[in-house]
Amino acid sequence: MTLHVNRDGLETVLEGTHLLVATGRTANTDGIGLDQAGVETTDRGYVKVNERLETTAPGVWAAGDCAGSPHFTHISENDFHIVHDNILGGHRTTTARQAPFCMFTDPELARIGLSETEAMERGVRLPAGEDSDGCSPPRSNTFRDARLHESPH
């Protein structure tokens, strides 16, 4: 399979045996009567919420993808806990929560906090590819394959 890509006037030819098209996600809130309930949406179609996940309609809450939260199951679950606690009189918010970013591949890829690009934009120096002790993680931990960590002797 050959794919011709033109981006900013630069053509690239990609060849391979499979093609995965990931076009992103869009909100699915059109035509479900949110406006009749007094619930406003953002320009991208997500339910408009504050940091407590309250919508623009009194007593109506939103959580997960429809509220524009990051599209991860663990974030939606955390949204549920925030809404649950707030309904019971709590004062929890989504502000400053540490949300892990994960890609469920093999090996898995994950980070929490700033990405390398975000850190560089803020002038934060990162020892990319190293753990907190300044050492690179063993490849066997990265790839879950003990053969990559064996000594040749």
Quick structural overview:
The protein is α+β, with helices and mostly antiparallel strands and 153 residues long.
Distance between the termini: 43 Å
Which regions are unreliable across 5 or more consecutive residues at pLDDT < 50?
none
C-alpha-based Rg, rounded: 22 Å
Count of separate DSSP helical elements = 3
Major sheet, described briefly? 2 strands, antiparallel
Number of strands: 4
Structural class: alpha+beta
Silhouette: extended
Order of secondary-structure elements: EEHEEHH
The spatial strand order of the largest sheet comes to: 1-2
Q: Specify the oligomeric state.
A: single chain
Approximate helicity band = 10-25%
Overall pLDDT level: 83
Strand content: 5-15%
How would you characterize the overall build of this protein?
With 153 residues, this protein is of the alpha+beta class. The protein is 17% helix and 12% strand. It has 3 helices and 4 strands. The protein has helices at residues 73-87, 116-121, 139-143, and strands at 2-7, 10-15, 101-103, 109-111. Strands 1-2 form a two-stranded antiparallel sheet. Strands 3-4 form a two-stranded antiparallel ribbon. β3 (101-103) and β4 form a beta hairpin. The longest helix is centred in the middle third of the chain and has 15 residues, at 73-87. The radius of gyration is 22 Å and the shape is extended. The model has no long low-confidence stretch (mean pLDDT 83).
